[in-house]
Specification:
mainly beta, Pectate Lyase C-like, 32-stranded parallel β-sheet, 1 helix, 32 strands
Length: 393
């Protein structure tokens, strides 16, 4: 295994062959081309920030089980986040340039692993521009981006399907469109220990924390929080902004111990089929759960839905006309008379060991033309105990 080196100013002949001959960040693509499977490219973290205003195109990689690793290190070679700063204004407003792309993965950029980086003031931290496989992003944080990861085909590539990807240990603070967007036939993805907060940014008509579209399938989202994804508008308009969103042809998605809080539309807006949520938590979203396809909600919670504005209703669980939903071992609580706890027109829903705490003048059952099974499994309580209160984010 060989190491290649990058520092802010470079050094020596800038070939990247040693610390004394460190390359610059703009030589990263060439170093990836030069590297072999299992090699590392070490980005020095303690000599200042890196300034990148144009995409770094990557079109080579390692081998299965032997990725090329691109990571931040200190002067002793220990893991330490290297800071990369782009062209996005530090105080972003929706009517100005979103900023540059940073890492652009093109055909051949397989078996790459990115670690220990901090990306600031950048339009898109990672752009998937072609079909790639076995990509890992670990301990890479972002501040002030449009996207952390955007899956969008580039140039002559007609698709940008990702076959096996892991995104973990990521914090995103301040994004204006989506934290993570995956599309095409992307599959075998794990998103774990990811926390994203839109943090008051604006710009996109349909902002979402995690957005899965096209025929994305076989995705695990675990120990992950999407917070404060918001839009605004006239009182008569529909205010978008979902924590987690999946589209109609997406399937086989699993959520484990996830949190959606403070979003102006749904915490979970899920049109996918074969969707399972275990230990999910939704707090303070206009509709905590908005389910359109086939879904199971197991040992999960919804608390204090809050209408932030616009024409939407305020619900714990809303189901669409084609939904097939099963709710098991779950708890819902709030004290607002404006909440319709279970709402929808059409579809089917079943209950098993479900508890609902709600205001005495709130509507518990707002399901119309809906096939309902197990209604006697809903424990209905008018008293809202203080111990059930949740305030997250």
């Amino acid at each position: 295994m060989s190491n290649y080196y990058i520092s802010p100013a470079g050094a020596g002949d800038r070939s990247g062959s040693s610390r004394a001959n460190a390359g610059t960040i703009n030589t990263l693509g060439a170093l990836v081309d030069k590297a072999s499977a299992g090699d590392q490219i070490l980005i020095r973290s303690d000599q200042g920030s890196y300034h990148v205003t144009s995409p770094i195109a990557l079109d080579a990689g390692g081998a299965a089980g032997r990725p090329i690793v691109i990571r931040g290190v200190d002067g002793s070679g220990n893991a330490a986040q290297a800071t990369i700063i782009g062209s996005r204004p530090a105080k972003f407003a929706g009517d100005i340039d979103a900023g540059n792309e940073l890492f652009k993965l093109l055909d051949g950029a397989d078996n790459l692993k990115f670690k220990d980086l901090l990306v600031r003031n950048t339009g898109t931290a990672f752009r998937i521009g072609a079909d790639v496989s076995r990509v890992t992003i670990d301990n890479v944080d972002a501040r002030n981006v449009q996207y952390f990861l955007n899956d969008l085909a580039s140039g002559s590539s007609r698709t940008a399907t990702v076959d096996r990807m892991t995104i973990r240990n990521v914090d995103v603070v301040g994004f204006s469109d989506k934290a993570i967007k995956l599309g095409y036939d992307t599959h075998a993805v794990t998103i774990q220990h990811v926390n994203a907060d839109m943090a008051g940014q604006v710009g996109a008509p349909f902002p979402e924390g995690v957005h899965l579209t096209d025929t994305v399938h076989d995705v695990l989202i675990a120990d992950t929080t999407m917070a404060n994804v918001r839009s605004s508008g006239l009182a008569t308009a529909y205010w978008n902004g979902d924590g987690f969103a999946t589209e109609a042809d997406v399937h086989d998605i699993r959520f484990e111990s996830t949190v959606a809080t403070g979003n102006t539309d749904a915490g979970y807006d899920l049109k996918s089929d074969n969707t399972v949520l275990v230990g999910a938590l939704a707090v303070g979203n206009t509709r905590n759960y908005r389910l359109w396809g086939s879904a199971e909600l197991i040992d999960s919670e919804g608390h204090n839905p809050q209408k932030h504005g616009g024409s939407s209703g305020q619900n714990q669980v809303w189901i669409g006309q084609s939904a097939q939903v099963a709710i098991k071992g779950s708890v819902f609580s709030d004290a607002s008379s404006k909440t319709i706890v279970f709402a929808g027109t059409g579809g089917s829903i079943s209950f098993d060991d479900v508890t609902a705490y709600h205001a005495g003048d709130a509507t518990l059952n707002g399901l119309y033309h809906t096939t309902v099974a197990g209604w006697n499994e809903v424990a209905d309580h008018f008293v809202y105990p203080a111990s059930m209160a949740h305030d997250i984010g």
